[in-house]
């Protein structure tokens, strides 16, 4: 059933005036934006239940009404401690405005020690993570023993947390931090004598933060999303904010300390993996985080910088490093495949086809030199070489399903780029290889006893993993029957109240707790596989559990690197609680609920095909394209029909609807508004 009408290009004058009046009001989606209003951020509250020792006007740090006075006459007095809460996870350099200080009885300026943390459960007298805790490297290690130190001068001045030491190797600070809470104490390390002492008086007139991420205020959004469910809508913006925290200029003094500082990245805009750590851009993470970037902000340059830099470090055998860490020598087996899928995303979302002029041969070498050398010619499956890991350093040597499924996805994406780039022979060769690997995969890895793909085949291996099954579906290895059986298996054997675990119970043989661990990163692929298989209810259910759980926990808003048993932070204090690879909610809602995908580079051709549940009544949004904004809105009426309005930019064409969901396919041109009823 289908109806088609074209709205008049010439709107009545009265309607236009009404529209202009509305346009001046704040669009409703802007209420969900999480960015601070400006580059200097102030704390929201003092956690008074943590306040100890002699402190006057603690609230002054929030109200600004009075100077806060820390006094500790001698080091035997209780340490004055105060905890400020920024109200949400933030990133940058702390600023302390000192209104004066007086020395105590022992020699030296009164000391201030700072301990940072993203979540209150890991707030202690040392930071939840400091770069100093990690190995010597580039930049060279400094020793902070877990806190940042200040020797407060006897005058009025503003101190900014900078990486380095105030004196030769003493009174040291880590510089940038990703955190929500800061514990401020009047104290000093004994190793900082005689410059700083644990006594005296320190007056502080304000605490602030110099924001180091991308300041994603409402005016910076190039794409947006809103739907009838305010929780889903909010999590779309939470994903954007999480990524904004790590969208930054690559700088030597705040990067991952294990030899990640690279001259070819310095000064460039990048997407760091996390705000707190590792602070290095990884190519696998871009499979999700670049999409969040393309769909929300004009920051595609960051993805390009990473793709180009890693391509420039391609090894003679075709392998591409996952990131700059350990001088580009961290050996991951899966990440070169993401370089290919991310190249496809870059070209299709931004339309920068000249990228292929400089990078086509890089792709050719990955696919035709590196992976064939690591293929088991009997099964056609990839074999992970010794000494190589993957996105989570999983102890699964040999032919894990995930590697070959991702390989097929990359071969198909590469074939699509080759087709576009006028290289039909390469496209045909890669498609043929994808078909052969798919056949080998189905023959070797299908576990008919449970109707899902094995994680890998070996004596005693009984695990089934989220990554291998989800990617087998997205890569087209599974047909509709095996796909829905595998998804049903995952739903029945991995569902937790905080998401779907990345392994079934068989995974606990690899490492205890795997069947209770949730990666929002890999969950992105399962949710996408569910939408592609028209299981919108299953996708929305796991989205609500995964992102809803993180939203309901401290620090709130930002998306975690991993979730452990019973919904905990999977690596305790070390867990990054703002990690771009976990922002899949943003591309999932735009791609499947709003329903917009590019089918030619730069959206010169596109599809709009919402896959919805009956509890989402409407959605509105904009997808940025190089031709201009692509606007979509739809409502579901009581009989479940979808009334879809699309206003695509001139110079583009697309189709609305999909015969697969019971609708028809309507071909339309951009430049005018089209209304279609589907269902
Ligand atoms: C202190 O108060 C905060 C909220 O104000 C609460 O979340 C936290 O659990 C309390 N901590 C302690 C140690 O009492
Ligand atoms: C700190 O502020 C208090 C209250 O304004 C004032 O009495 C005291 O002299 C100040 N101390 C220093 C060292 O400036
Ligand atoms: C406080 O201690 C510092 C460091 O020892 C010293 O340089 C400074 O002169 C002292 N201030 C006063 C007012 O004595
Ligand atoms: C850290 O790097 C930034 C950018 O290069 C620079 O502006 C800042 O001064 C540096 N800070 C330190 C302590 O080197
Ligand atoms: C949205 O979240 C709140 C609190 O997290 C919850 O109480 C409410 O039921 C949720 N709404 C929907 C539609 O799921
Ligand atoms: C497009 O890609 C090329 C090659 O990678 C790059 O040099 C160029 O700056 C990119 N153009 C834009 C507008 O980003
Ligand atoms: C599989 O065959 C390819 C191409 O014929 C060859 O390059 C590769 O070394 C073989 N793989 C193994 C593991 O022997
Ligand atoms: C799907 O694949 C399975 C396994 O190869 C096969 O047995 C089945 O016939 C296929 N179903 C369809 C509808 O093609
Ligand atoms: C799991 O968390 C719930 C609250 O979310 C708690 O009641 C329960 O005791 C926890 N179980 C374990 C094994 O930690
Ligand atoms: C839903 O929309 C269809 C198509 O416009 C229309 O035929 C039908 O009457 C509508 N149903 C309701 C309950 O509004």
TrEMBL record:
SUPFAM superfamilies: Six-hairpin glycosidases. Coiled coil: none annotated. One of its GO terms (molecular function) is catalytic activity. Residues 273-491 form the Alpha-L-rhamnosidase six-hairpin glycosidase domain. Transmembrane segments: none annotated. Residues 595-667 form the Alpha-L-rhamnosidase C-terminal domain. Residues 1-25 form the signal peptide. Keywords: Signal. The keyword ATP-binding does not apply. The keyword Signal applies. Pfam families: Bac_rhamnosid6H (PF17389), Bac_rhamnosid_C (PF17390). This is Alpha-L-rhamnosidase. It comes from Xylaria flabelliformis.
